TrEMBL record, chain A:
Name listed for the protein in its UniProt record: Acetolactate synthase small subunit
GO cellular component: cytosol
PANTHER family, per database record: ACETOLACTATE SYNTHASE SMALL SUBUNIT, ACETOLACTATE SYNTHASE SMALL SUBUNIT 1, CHLOROPLASTIC
Gene3D superfamilies per the UniProt record, alphabetical: 3.30.70.260, ACT-like. Chain A, domain 2
Coiled coil (residue ranges): none
Record GO biological process: isoleucine biosynthetic process; L-valine biosynthetic process
Family, per entry: Belongs to the acetolactate synthase small subunit family.
Pathway: Amino-acid biosynthesis; L-valine biosynthesis; L-valine from pyruvate: step 1/4; Amino-acid biosynthesis; L-isoleucine biosynthesis; L-isoleucine from 2-oxobutanoate: step 1/4
Classification of source organism: Bacteria, Pseudomonadati, Pseudomonadota, Gammaproteobacteria, Pseudomonadales
Domain of life assignment: Bacteria
One GO molecular-function entry: acetolactate synthase activity
Self-association state and partner proteins as the record states: Dimer of large and small chains.
Reaction equations catalysed: 2 pyruvate + H(+) = (2S)-2-acetolactate + CO2
TrEMBL record, chain B:
Family indicated by similarity: Belongs to the TPP enzyme family.
Keyword presence, Amino-acid biosynthesis: yes
Domain Thiamine pyrophosphate enzyme TPP-binding: 394-543
Keywords in alphabetical order: Amino-acid biosynthesis, Branched-chain amino acid biosynthesis, FAD, Flavoprotein, Magnesium, Metal-binding, Thiamine pyrophosphate, Transferase
Listed name of the protein: Acetolactate synthase
Textual note on the cofactor: Binds 1 Mg(2+) ion per subunit. Binds 1 thiamine pyrophosphate per subunit.
Native source organism of the sequence: Marinobacter maroccanus
Record carries keyword Magnesium: yes
Cofactors that this protein relies on: Mg(2+); thiamine diphosphate
Length: 163, 572
């Protein structure tokens, strides 16, 4: 099953490599990975999406917790949560395609953030399935370049991941 | 406040940490540190002949004393040579701090002479590693390193020290921190009371219980609590190869150790049990055999300081995260207070069954009128040293024979590389033990394959006068490899034969030691007695043993705990 694990990590050199190394060392899967400092500059927040049986996920969270620089973590998929990923896409946009793409972008509630005579650059945020859906809708033949941020997530309601 | 250079701060920090010995080898990036070592006399440095041996020495010291070992090496090859030693300590959870020189911080990343990314190289085999980024950080980093190494589930910690952090003429205020602050590292100090209560209830209600103890009992200094609990409830106990000595082997409740080469009775009792109380062990594949066939009728209570060890390979019904000594203490007082007592009839019939398994004599070997059997060498050594020697071993058949036939009644005396299985471990580990236990008998039980992996340390033994006894069970082959080839590869002995063995006696003599060769069975006892009487000499005892002997029992691959070979022809 797919899981989103959110980690508060000491914002120190080498900390990220320990997390990434742990995954390859123990044969766990990383599907996406995002990391950036938080409002507390001593901490980074890292979000990793992974998949595995319950037993594997339990081991992943335990092994992550064992890393000295991991301060706190939560498996967001254990509760209600919001998942977002940002995507920038360059699309071939000429002739009648231009209007069609514009409509599709509107339907997906994206924005065209750069325009040339033959190319639209589209920005889209949402969960990973929505981003996949957009690519499918515009058709892969018109896609020139895709960049995705990887998943970020946060729990719904009052729950917070903080010190 | 005193003003000290980074190098002096490092050595002062070691003094303030109470470090007695450093094992190491100098080199360019570590020279400021070596100079600081030279100008003091509190911390004693032992110069090895290869950095791997320095780590195994520190490891042997740590296993025998329960205190963290310390290693000092230079950058690049000095650092990379420590990796096998660090991995050995990591797998067996041995507390240790490895101080590595590094090229100057201004050169890092430029492929400078003797530069290696030791932080990256060591990362998968350390509990943690730390890099010095400013000389002022040194006291705090050293304090943290020892704290992390020795607390919780212990392990090796590497400290990477760029040369410019130790420059002699740059001085800073020195103060050794009293406390360590680590918001993200708080090892459990006691177990969950509710879980412990539940465990005690299950324990008292069991009909076919067994205690399965591991190296965690020794590391957690909980042998006394374990022994008291086991004796009080009267249940059978087995332990892992890492747990040897955590409970007296000569006691009648002790079934020997379990697993791949464990005793028949221990493996049978595990398989047929209805309750396993696992204390500080980790259900390693060499213990469980095929996990899906593991102890089908047993419910499992698992006590461990490391939550990640629980339900990693075998699911626990009652997990208890905490230090084994504290948890066992609580269990003891609950067992004392409990109104329920163990089911006397059920336990009696369980013991009757176990005694039948014992009477079957699973661990046996055929003696021969003229060929020396490796097992009888070990039995004789055990008798001649009253079972009180410190015994280190290398890896292979001799290791299994030593573990099977030397009976340890005390913890910290059996010292082997159980997790990583590092050949070359035995001699340097024995040296680390002998250094701090000069009046105790220290035996290194080895084979002609393993001993050659760190044979150069005979030179270190001469320099520091370390009269260990090297017991070389010489079967002129890589015995365990050959055994597997006999059993699984129709006796095709691919590269398991040691051609061109050196004359070990002359070799020992060349290093300034004594050598004794034993080829005839009738000489065995007399010569071993002579060797053990040579208190002040390192003696290399080269014993020609049966070249065709196999280690039994041996669990059948991918079987359950109870599926074992008991001899070359007998399978149960």
């Amino acid at each position: 099953m797919r899981r989103i694990i959110s980690v508060l990590l000491e914002n120190e050199p080498g900390a990220l490599s320990r997390v990434v190394g742990l995954f390859s060392q123990r044969n766990y899967n990383i599907e996406t990975l995002t990391v950036a400092p938080t409002e507390d500059e001593t901490l980074s927040r890292l979000t990793v999406t992974t998949s595995g049986s319950d037993k594997v996920i339990e081991q992943i969270t335990k092994q992550l917790n064992k890393l000295i620089e991991v301060v706190k973590l939560v498996d967001l998929t254990e509760g209600a949560h919001i998942e977002r990923e940002l995507m920038l896409v360059k699309l071939k946009a000429t002739g009648s395609q231009r209007a069609e793409i514009k409509r599709t972008v509107d339907i997906f509630r994206g924005q065209i953030v750069d325009v040339t005579s033959s190319v639209y650059t589209v920005q889209l945020a949402g969960d990973s399935e929505k981003l996949d859906g957009f690519i499918q809708a515009v058709g892969t033949s018109g896609v020139l370049e895709v960049v995705r941020s990887g998943v970020s997530g946060i729990a719904r309601g009052e729950k917070v991941l903080s010190l | 406040m005193e003003l000290l250079s980074g190098a002096d701060m490092l050595i002062r920090s070691l003094q303030d940490e109470g470090i007695e010995y450093i094992y190491g080898y100098p080199g360019g990036a570590a020279l400021h540190i070596y100079d600081a070592l030279f100008r003091q006399d509190k911390v004693k440095h032992i110069l090895v002949r290869h950095e791997q041996a320095a780590v195994h020495m520190a490891d042997g010291y740590a296993r025998a004393t329960g205190k963290p070992g310390t290693v000092l090496v230079t950058s690049g090859p000095g650092a990379t040579n420590t990796i096998t030693g660090i991995a050995t300590a990591f797998m067996d959870s041995i507390p240790m701090v490895v101080l590595c020189g590094q090229v100057a911080s201004t050169l890092i990343g430029e492929d400078a002479f003797q530069e290696t990314d030791m932080m990256g190289v060591s990362r998968p085999v350390v509990k943690h590693n730390l890099s010095v980024r400013h000389p002022e950080e040194i006291p705090e980093i050293i304090r943290k390193a020892y704290y992390i190494a020795a607390t919780g589930r212990p392990g090796p910690v590497v400290v990477d020290i760029p040369k410019d952090m130790t420059t002699p003429n740059e001085r800073y205020e020195y103060a050794y921190p009293k406390k360590v602050k680590l918001r993200s590292y708080n090892p459990a100090i006691r177990g969950h009371a509710g879980q412990i209560k539940k465990a005690v209830d299950m324990l008292l209600a069991a009909k076919r219980p067994i205690i399965y103890a591991g190296g965690g009992v020794i590391l957690g200094k909980a042998s006394d609590q374990l022994t008291e609990l086991v004796r009080m409830i009267g249940y059978p106990i087995t332990n892992t190869i890492m747990g040897i000595g955590c409970y007296p082997a000569s006691d009648k409740q002790h079934l020997g150790w379990l697993g791949m080469h464990g005793t028949y009775e221990a493996n049978m009792a595990m398989h047929h049990s209805d309750l396993i109380l696992c204390v500080g062990a980790r259900f390693d594949d060499r213990v469980t055999n095929a996990t899906e066939k593991f102890c089908p009728g047993a419910r499992i209570i698992h006590i461990d300081i490391d939550p990640a060890s629980i339900s990693k390979t075998v699911d626990a019904d009652v997990p208890i995260v905490g230090p084994v000594d504290a948890v066992l203490k609580e269990m003891l007082s609950l067992v004392k207070e409990a109104k329920e007592k163990p089911d006397a009839d059920a336990i009696a019939s369980w013991w009757k069954q176990i005694d039948e398994w014992r009477a079957f004599h699973g661990m046996r070997y055929e003696t021969s009128p003229d060929v020396i059997k490796p097992q009888e060498v070990i039995e004789m050594l055990c008798r001649l040293t009253n079972g009180e020697a410190f015994v280190t071993s290398d890896v292979g058949q001799h290791q299994m024979f030593a573990a099977q036939y030397y009976k340890f009644d005390k913890p910290n005396r059996w010292i082997n590389s159980g997790g990583l299985g590092t050949m070359g471990f035995g001699l340097p580990a024995a040296m680390g033990v002998k250094l701090t236990h000069p009046d105790d008998e220290v035996l290194c039980i080895t084979g002609e394959g393993s001993i050659q992996m760190n044979i150069q340390e005979l030179s270190t033994c001469k320099q520091y006068n370390l009269p260990v006894k090297i017991i070389n069970l010489n079967n002129q082959a890589l015995g365990m490899v050959k055994q597997w080839q006999d059993m699984n590869y129709e006796s095709r002995h691919a590269e398991s034969y040691m051609e061109s063995l050196p004359d070990f006696i002359k070799l020992a003599e060349a290093y300034g030691h004594k050598g004794v060769r034993i080829e005839k069975k009738e000489d065995l006892e007399t010569k071993l007695k002579e060797v053990l009487a040579m208190k002040d000499d390192l003696v290399f005892v080269d014993i020609y043993v049966d070249r065709f002997e196999h280690v039994y029992p041996m669990q059948v691959a991918r079987g359950s705990m109870k599926d074992m070979w008991l001899s070359k022809t007998e399978r149960v």
